[in-house]
Amino acid sequence: MTYWESKGQYQNLVEELTKRLPPFGSVPDAKTASKNLEKFRKAQNCYYDLYNNGLCNKAREFSTVFRIPGVPREIKQNYRYNTLVCKTTEELIEAKMDKIILAAAKEQGIA
Questions:
Q1: Alpha-carbon span 89 to 76, nearest angstrom
Q2: Per-residue pLDDT tens over the stretch 57-71
Q3: CA–CA separation, 94 vs 8, rounded Å?
Q4: Best exposed site among 6, 11, 63, 89 by fewest CB in 10 Å?
Q5: What are the DSSP calls for 40-78, one per residue?
Q6: Between the CA of residue 98 and those of 23, 24, 57, 102, 103, what are the distances in Å?
Q7: Measured between alpha carbons, how far is 106 from 91 in angstroms, rounded to an integer?
Q8: What single-letter DSSP state applies at residue 23?
Q9: Using CB atoms within 10 A of its CB, is residue 9 exposed (0-12), middle (13-18) or buried (19+)?
């Protein structure tokens, strides 16, 4: 049950938060009032790149946003990430995404 499959633990919050994202670029007030929404935007982009491209485009940003040691290196070594990643790494990524989603939802007043 992952966000990639649209079955994440807080999928309903993801859908509400996504409605608040601009079509391109940073979130307005990204450095002040919408700091966590901006982090969600970046995390969502990195998450997409992870599953769609094996982090070919956002490996460095992924390590900054998710802060999971060794993950970008592991992914770069495994071209077909979806089939080769170990379950514990996937669980770590989902847990980090959960925290980012909850922080953004709280900041935005979404229950």
A1: 14
A2: 998 899 899 987 666
A3: 8
A4: 6
A5: HHHHHHHHHHHHHHTTTTTHHHHHHHH--TTHHHHHHH-
A6: 23, 23, 23, 6, 9
A7: 23
A8: S
A9: middle
Q: Which two tokens stand for residue 100?
A: 């980012």
> Which residue reads 């700091």 in tokens?
35
Token couple for 94: 């989902």
With vertex at residue 36, the alpha carbon angle to CA 35 and CA 42, rounded to the nearest 5 degrees, is: 95
Q: What distance, in Å, lies between the first and last C-alpha atoms of the chain?
A: 21
**Entry pTM:** 0.83
